[in-house]
Specification:
- This protein has 212 residues and is α/β, with parallel strands linked by helices.
- It has a single domain, classed as Spore Coat Polysaccharide Biosynthesis Protein SpsA, Chain A, CATH 3.90.550.10.
- The protein contains 9 helices and 11 strands.
- Strands 3-2-1-4-7-6-9 form a 7-stranded mixed sheet, with helices on both faces. A two-stranded antiparallel sheet has the order 5-10. A two-stranded antiparallel ribbon has the order 8-11.
- Helix 1 runs parallel beside helix 2.
- The relative contact order is 0.16.
- The mean pLDDT is 84.
Length: 212
């Protein structure tokens, strides 16, 4: 099976290069696609210099739309989605996400942080369905309508879909991995505002997704 890694990214120049570099050392991955979702920094340039194929969206359309743009332009039968702000990603993490799908044990995996930082560990234990670290069969994504308008609700929509369709999935522990929180990127006030907006998009996104 062909495997494509897709990373939606909005102003993630400080971290995107390291993520692409780790993926480039995973032999099972055939292509790495970074979707720069209207970034105003040099995310696209860093990703390209690191060896990724880059899709540059002129304006920010949201995470769901960026992921859909990657899916529409990839060749893989299995898609690996990763967030662009990860800290501590290793080749082992990537393979642990991929192999249950490659071997046919399940059709989707969901990565859960553990032992990284208390705040991000706790958030994922409370709401694992929000994790952006996933491997999934492409045919599942092809059966989901309106994925592009879910924005930050895309992960919840994916989990909800596979549950409703009784599609096999499993959680995979990603030890010693975390990500940069919105409050760290934007400052406390703007970070909290961005987080509240994200939660609203998650709730709204559930009502927008339909299945074919």
């Amino acid at each position: 099976m062909q495997i494509s890694a897709i990373i939606p990214a909005y102003n993630e120049a400080p971290t995107i290069g390291k993520i692409v570099d780790v993926l480039s050392h995973v032999q099972e991955i055939g292509e790495i696609i970074v979707v720069s979702d209207g970034s105003t920094d040099n995310t696209a340039e860093v990703a390209r210099q690191s060896g990724a194929k880059v899709i540059e969206l002129a304006v920010n359309i949201g995470k769901g739309g960026a992921m859909k743009a990657g899916v529409d332009n990839c060749s893989g039968d299995i898609i690996l989605f990763l967030d662009a702000d990860l800290i501590g990603l290793t080749e082992r993490h990537v393979k642990n996400l991929l192999y249950p799908v490659i071997k046919g044990e399940v059709e989707m995996t969901i990565g859960i942080f553990d032992g990284g930082r208390f705040s991000t560990d706790l958030a994922q234990k409370v709401s694992p369905f929000l994790s952006g670290q996933r491997a999934i069969k492409k045919h599942i994504l092809n059966n989901i309508c309106n994925m592009e308008i879910t924005k930050f609700g895309v992960e919840v929509a994916l989990t909800n879909y596979v549950r409703k369709k009784n599609i096999a999935y499993k959680k995979v522990v990603l030890e010693q991995m975390t990500h940069i929180m919105k409050e760290e990127k934007l400052g406390w006030k703007k970070g909290v505002q961005a987080r509240m907006k994200m939660y609203w998009e998650i709730i709204k996104g559930l009502s927008l997704v339909r299945q074919r």
